[in-house]
Predict the structure of IS3 family transposase.
Amino acid sequence: MRALIDEHPHLGVEPVLRELHIPSSTSYRRRQAGTEPCERCCQDTELTGQIRQIRQIHTDSGGIHGSPRVHAVLKRGGVRVGRWRCPRLRGSIERPMRQAGLAGISPRRGMGFTRRDPNADLAPDLVQRDFTAPAPNRLRLTDLTMISTGEGPLWLSAIRDAFSRRVVAWETSARADADLVLTTLEYALASREVGPGRLIHHADHGCQYTSVKLTTRLVRAGIQTSMGAVGDSFDNALAENLWMLVKTECLRGRVFATRAEVNLALFEYLDGFYTPRRIQKRLGYLSPIEFEEKHYAGQATAEPVNLKPHHPALIS
Protein backbone atom coordinates (compact mmCIF):
# COMPACT_ATOMS: atom_id res chain seq x y z
CA MET A 1 0.00 0.00 0.00
CA ARG A 2 2.73 2.45 1.03
CA ALA A 3 4.71 1.61 -2.09
CA LEU A 4 1.65 2.25 -4.27
CA ILE A 5 1.03 5.65 -2.70
CA ASP A 6 4.69 6.62 -2.95
CA GLU A 7 4.82 5.54 -6.59
CA HIS A 8 1.65 7.43 -7.59
CA PRO A 9 1.44 10.52 -5.34
CA HIS A 10 -0.79 12.29 -7.90
CA LEU A 11 -3.63 9.91 -7.04
CA GLY A 12 -3.84 11.25 -3.51
CA VAL A 13 -3.71 9.29 -0.27
CA GLU A 14 -7.38 9.38 0.68
CA PRO A 15 -8.80 8.03 -2.62
CA VAL A 16 -6.31 5.16 -2.66
CA LEU A 17 -7.12 4.19 0.93
CA ARG A 18 -10.82 4.40 0.19
CA GLU A 19 -10.49 2.02 -2.77
CA LEU A 20 -8.43 -0.42 -0.70
CA HIS A 21 -10.91 -0.24 2.21
CA ILE A 22 -8.16 0.80 4.63
CA PRO A 23 -8.89 3.40 7.33
CA SER A 24 -6.78 6.50 6.89
CA SER A 25 -5.88 6.44 10.59
CA THR A 26 -4.23 3.05 10.13
CA SER A 27 -2.10 4.31 7.26
CA TYR A 28 -0.97 7.42 9.09
CA ARG A 29 -0.20 5.42 12.25
CA ARG A 30 1.97 2.97 10.33
CA ARG A 31 3.77 5.76 8.52
CA GLN A 32 4.41 7.59 11.80
CA ALA A 33 5.74 4.39 13.39
CA GLY A 34 8.35 4.21 10.64
CA THR A 35 9.65 7.73 11.29
CA GLU A 36 8.82 8.12 14.99
CA PRO A 37 8.85 4.68 16.63
CA CYS A 38 7.20 4.34 20.02
CA GLU A 39 9.18 3.91 23.22
CA ARG A 40 8.60 0.16 23.30
CA CYS A 41 9.86 -0.21 19.71
CA CYS A 42 12.95 1.80 20.60
CA GLN A 43 13.59 -0.45 23.59
CA ASP A 44 13.10 -3.52 21.43
CA THR A 45 15.56 -2.18 18.87
CA GLU A 46 18.11 -1.53 21.60
CA LEU A 47 17.59 -5.01 23.02
CA THR A 48 17.84 -6.56 19.56
CA GLY A 49 21.39 -5.23 19.54
CA GLN A 50 21.98 -7.37 22.61
CA ILE A 51 20.54 -10.53 21.03
CA ARG A 52 24.05 -11.64 20.13
CA GLN A 53 25.07 -11.31 23.75
CA ILE A 54 21.95 -13.21 24.89
CA ARG A 55 22.66 -15.95 22.37
CA GLN A 56 26.25 -16.18 23.61
CA ILE A 57 25.12 -16.52 27.23
CA HIS A 58 22.67 -19.23 26.23
CA THR A 59 25.35 -21.05 24.19
CA ASP A 60 27.92 -20.84 27.00
CA SER A 61 25.44 -22.60 29.28
CA GLY A 62 25.08 -25.43 26.80
CA GLY A 63 21.55 -24.32 25.96
CA ILE A 64 20.48 -24.74 29.60
CA HIS A 65 19.78 -21.20 30.80
CA GLY A 66 16.27 -19.82 30.39
CA SER A 67 15.23 -16.18 30.68
CA PRO A 68 15.70 -15.86 34.50
CA ARG A 69 19.35 -16.92 34.38
CA VAL A 70 20.08 -15.05 31.14
CA HIS A 71 18.63 -11.95 32.81
CA ALA A 72 20.82 -12.57 35.87
CA VAL A 73 23.97 -12.95 33.77
CA LEU A 74 23.20 -9.73 31.85
CA LYS A 75 22.60 -7.93 35.14
CA ARG A 76 25.92 -9.17 36.52
CA GLY A 77 27.59 -7.85 33.39
CA GLY A 78 26.19 -4.37 33.99
CA VAL A 79 23.45 -4.54 31.32
CA ARG A 80 20.26 -2.92 32.61
CA VAL A 81 17.22 -4.65 31.19
CA GLY A 82 14.03 -5.73 32.90
CA ARG A 83 12.92 -9.32 32.65
CA TRP A 84 9.30 -8.12 32.39
CA ARG A 85 7.81 -4.84 31.19
CA CYS A 86 4.83 -5.40 33.44
CA PRO A 87 3.35 -8.55 35.02
CA ARG A 88 0.78 -8.99 32.23
CA LEU A 89 3.15 -8.49 29.26
CA ARG A 90 5.79 -10.74 27.81
CA GLY A 91 9.26 -10.19 29.21
CA SER A 92 11.81 -8.02 27.44
CA ILE A 93 14.24 -10.92 27.81
CA GLU A 94 11.75 -13.69 27.11
CA ARG A 95 10.42 -12.19 23.88
CA PRO A 96 13.77 -11.79 22.07
CA MET A 97 14.81 -15.24 23.29
CA ARG A 98 11.62 -16.67 21.85
CA GLN A 99 12.17 -14.80 18.58
CA ALA A 100 15.73 -16.15 18.41
CA GLY A 101 14.50 -19.69 19.12
CA LEU A 102 16.26 -19.86 22.49
CA ALA A 103 14.77 -21.63 25.51
CA GLY A 104 15.89 -23.26 28.73
CA ILE A 105 15.38 -26.92 29.66
CA SER A 106 12.57 -28.20 31.88
CA PRO A 107 12.95 -31.21 34.20
CA ARG A 108 11.26 -34.58 34.03
CA ARG A 109 10.38 -36.88 36.87
CA GLY A 110 12.79 -39.69 37.57
CA MET A 111 12.73 -42.95 39.52
CA GLY A 112 14.64 -44.29 42.50
CA PHE A 113 17.27 -47.03 42.26
CA THR A 114 18.39 -47.79 45.83
CA ARG A 115 17.05 -50.82 47.69
CA ARG A 116 16.73 -51.23 51.43
CA ASP A 117 18.42 -54.01 53.40
CA PRO A 118 15.77 -55.22 55.90
CA ASN A 119 18.46 -56.51 58.30
CA ALA A 120 20.57 -53.34 58.37
CA ASP A 121 20.95 -51.05 61.38
CA LEU A 122 19.54 -47.66 60.42
CA ALA A 123 20.78 -44.25 61.48
CA PRO A 124 18.30 -41.59 62.65
CA ASP A 125 17.15 -38.77 60.40
CA LEU A 126 19.13 -35.79 61.68
CA VAL A 127 18.08 -33.54 58.81
CA GLN A 128 14.26 -33.75 58.95
CA ARG A 129 14.00 -32.24 55.45
CA ASP A 130 15.85 -29.07 56.48
CA PHE A 131 18.46 -28.85 53.74
CA THR A 132 20.21 -25.74 54.99
CA ALA A 133 23.61 -25.32 56.59
CA PRO A 134 25.32 -22.31 58.18
CA ALA A 135 28.63 -22.98 56.43
CA PRO A 136 30.33 -25.44 54.06
CA ASN A 137 31.21 -28.92 55.34
CA ARG A 138 28.34 -29.06 57.85
CA LEU A 139 25.76 -31.08 55.90
CA ARG A 140 26.33 -33.27 52.87
CA LEU A 141 23.77 -35.32 50.98
CA THR A 142 24.49 -38.34 48.85
CA ASP A 143 22.66 -40.70 46.53
CA LEU A 144 23.23 -42.77 43.41
CA THR A 145 21.48 -43.13 40.07
CA MET A 146 21.72 -45.21 36.91
CA ILE A 147 22.62 -44.04 33.40
CA SER A 148 22.03 -46.25 30.36
CA THR A 149 24.84 -46.84 27.85
CA GLY A 150 25.50 -49.19 24.94
CA GLU A 151 27.76 -51.22 27.23
CA GLY A 152 25.13 -51.55 29.92
CA PRO A 153 24.18 -49.50 32.99
CA LEU A 154 26.58 -47.02 34.54
CA TRP A 155 25.98 -46.06 38.16
CA LEU A 156 26.71 -42.52 39.31
CA SER A 157 27.30 -41.68 42.96
CA ALA A 158 27.72 -38.11 44.17
CA ILE A 159 28.03 -36.10 47.38
CA ARG A 160 26.59 -32.58 47.49
CA ASP A 161 27.21 -29.86 50.07
CA ALA A 162 23.94 -28.40 51.36
CA PHE A 163 25.35 -24.91 51.95
CA SER A 164 26.53 -24.09 48.43
CA ARG A 165 24.95 -26.99 46.47
CA ARG A 166 28.48 -27.81 45.36
CA VAL A 167 29.23 -31.36 44.16
CA VAL A 168 32.06 -32.23 46.52
CA ALA A 169 32.79 -35.61 44.92
CA TRP A 170 31.37 -38.00 42.34
CA GLU A 171 32.29 -41.42 41.00
CA THR A 172 30.91 -43.95 38.52
CA SER A 173 30.95 -47.73 38.31
CA ALA A 174 29.37 -50.59 36.43
CA ARG A 175 28.15 -51.92 39.80
CA ALA A 176 25.92 -50.19 42.35
CA ASP A 177 27.72 -51.57 45.40
CA ALA A 178 29.22 -50.36 48.65
CA ASP A 179 32.62 -49.88 47.00
CA LEU A 180 31.15 -47.20 44.73
CA VAL A 181 29.73 -45.08 47.57
CA LEU A 182 32.85 -45.67 49.69
CA THR A 183 35.12 -44.45 46.88
CA THR A 184 32.96 -41.35 46.51
CA LEU A 185 33.27 -40.70 50.24
CA GLU A 186 37.06 -41.08 50.10
CA TYR A 187 37.25 -38.50 47.30
CA ALA A 188 35.08 -36.13 49.32
CA LEU A 189 37.26 -36.53 52.42
CA ALA A 190 40.43 -35.99 50.39
CA SER A 191 39.09 -32.85 48.72
CA ARG A 192 38.19 -31.05 51.95
CA GLU A 193 39.34 -31.18 55.53
CA VAL A 194 36.45 -31.83 57.90
CA GLY A 195 36.51 -31.31 61.66
CA PRO A 196 35.40 -34.34 63.75
CA GLY A 197 31.76 -34.21 64.80
CA ARG A 198 30.89 -31.17 62.67
CA LEU A 199 29.72 -32.87 59.48
CA ILE A 200 26.45 -34.75 58.89
CA HIS A 201 26.43 -37.30 56.05
CA HIS A 202 22.81 -37.81 54.91
CA ALA A 203 21.61 -40.63 52.65
CA ASP A 204 18.59 -42.91 52.28
CA HIS A 205 18.15 -46.45 53.59
CA GLY A 206 19.75 -48.04 50.52
CA CYS A 207 21.83 -51.10 51.27
CA GLN A 208 24.95 -49.36 49.93
CA TYR A 209 24.66 -46.69 52.64
CA THR A 210 23.92 -49.10 55.48
CA SER A 211 26.86 -51.35 54.59
CA VAL A 212 29.52 -52.06 57.20
CA LYS A 213 32.24 -50.67 54.90
CA LEU A 214 30.68 -47.23 54.65
CA THR A 215 29.39 -46.87 58.20
CA THR A 216 32.77 -47.92 59.64
CA ARG A 217 34.59 -45.35 57.50
CA LEU A 218 32.17 -42.61 58.57
CA VAL A 219 32.76 -43.44 62.25
CA ARG A 220 36.53 -43.39 61.76
CA ALA A 221 36.29 -39.96 60.09
CA GLY A 222 34.16 -38.58 62.94
CA ILE A 223 31.17 -37.94 60.66
CA GLN A 224 27.58 -38.17 61.92
CA THR A 225 25.36 -40.49 59.89
CA SER A 226 21.81 -39.49 58.98
CA MET A 227 19.27 -41.40 56.90
CA GLY A 228 15.91 -40.68 55.32
CA ALA A 229 13.52 -43.33 54.06
CA VAL A 230 13.88 -45.23 50.78
CA GLY A 231 11.27 -44.24 48.20
CA ASP A 232 10.55 -40.86 49.81
CA SER A 233 12.31 -38.27 47.68
CA PHE A 234 11.38 -35.50 50.12
CA ASP A 235 13.72 -37.02 52.73
CA ASN A 236 16.69 -36.57 50.39
CA ALA A 237 15.38 -33.82 48.13
CA LEU A 238 18.65 -31.98 47.55
CA ALA A 239 20.36 -35.15 46.32
CA GLU A 240 17.37 -36.01 44.12
CA ASN A 241 17.52 -32.50 42.73
CA LEU A 242 21.09 -33.11 41.54
CA TRP A 243 19.94 -36.07 39.45
CA MET A 244 17.22 -33.93 37.94
CA LEU A 245 19.82 -31.35 36.90
CA VAL A 246 22.28 -33.91 35.54
CA LYS A 247 19.68 -35.82 33.52
CA THR A 248 17.98 -32.67 32.26
CA GLU A 249 20.97 -30.48 31.47
CA CYS A 250 23.70 -33.02 30.71
CA LEU A 251 22.22 -36.31 29.52
CA ARG A 252 18.81 -35.66 27.95
CA GLY A 253 18.65 -36.32 24.23
CA ARG A 254 22.10 -37.90 24.10
CA VAL A 255 22.91 -41.54 23.32
CA PHE A 256 26.10 -42.97 24.80
CA ALA A 257 27.73 -45.98 23.20
CA THR A 258 30.26 -46.49 26.00
CA ARG A 259 30.61 -45.75 29.68
CA ALA A 260 33.70 -43.67 28.88
CA GLU A 261 31.54 -41.26 26.87
CA VAL A 262 29.25 -40.77 29.87
CA ASN A 263 32.21 -40.14 32.16
CA LEU A 264 33.50 -37.45 29.81
CA ALA A 265 30.08 -35.80 29.61
CA LEU A 266 29.74 -35.85 33.41
CA PHE A 267 33.20 -34.38 33.85
CA GLU A 268 32.45 -31.55 31.44
CA TYR A 269 29.14 -30.80 33.14
CA LEU A 270 29.87 -31.30 36.86
CA ASP A 271 33.45 -30.04 36.99
CA GLY A 272 33.49 -27.76 33.97
CA PHE A 273 30.07 -26.11 34.17
CA TYR A 274 27.91 -26.86 37.21
CA THR A 275 30.38 -26.14 40.02
CA PRO A 276 32.23 -23.13 38.58
CA ARG A 277 29.66 -21.52 36.26
CA ARG A 278 26.05 -22.66 36.77
CA ILE A 279 24.29 -19.82 38.60
CA GLN A 280 21.42 -20.71 40.94
CA LYS A 281 18.54 -18.56 42.13
CA ARG A 282 18.80 -19.74 45.76
CA LEU A 283 22.45 -18.72 45.78
CA GLY A 284 21.63 -15.19 44.65
CA TYR A 285 22.39 -16.12 41.04
CA LEU A 286 25.92 -17.19 41.89
CA SER A 287 27.65 -20.45 41.07
CA PRO A 288 28.54 -22.83 43.96
CA ILE A 289 32.19 -21.77 43.85
CA GLU A 290 31.29 -18.06 43.76
CA PHE A 291 28.87 -18.52 46.65
CA GLU A 292 31.50 -20.22 48.81
CA GLU A 293 34.05 -17.53 47.98
CA LYS A 294 31.51 -14.89 48.97
CA HIS A 295 30.81 -16.79 52.20
CA TYR A 296 34.47 -16.85 53.15
CA ALA A 297 34.47 -13.10 52.54
CA GLY A 298 31.63 -12.90 55.10
CA GLN A 299 28.81 -11.90 52.76
CA ALA A 300 26.87 -14.96 51.62
CA THR A 301 23.48 -16.09 52.93
CA ALA A 302 21.47 -18.85 51.27
CA GLU A 303 17.70 -18.84 50.91
CA PRO A 304 15.97 -21.56 52.97
CA VAL A 305 14.59 -24.57 51.12
CA ASN A 306 10.80 -24.83 51.32
CA LEU A 307 9.56 -28.20 50.11
CA LYS A 308 5.86 -27.32 50.10
CA PRO A 309 3.98 -27.18 47.83
CA HIS A 310 6.70 -27.92 45.24
CA HIS A 311 8.10 -31.29 44.35
CA PRO A 312 11.74 -31.69 45.50
CA ALA A 313 12.92 -32.28 41.97
CA LEU A 314 12.04 -28.67 41.19
CA ILE A 315 14.33 -27.18 43.83
CA SER A 316 17.16 -25.56 41.90
Q: What stands out?
A: The longest strand covers residues 139-149.
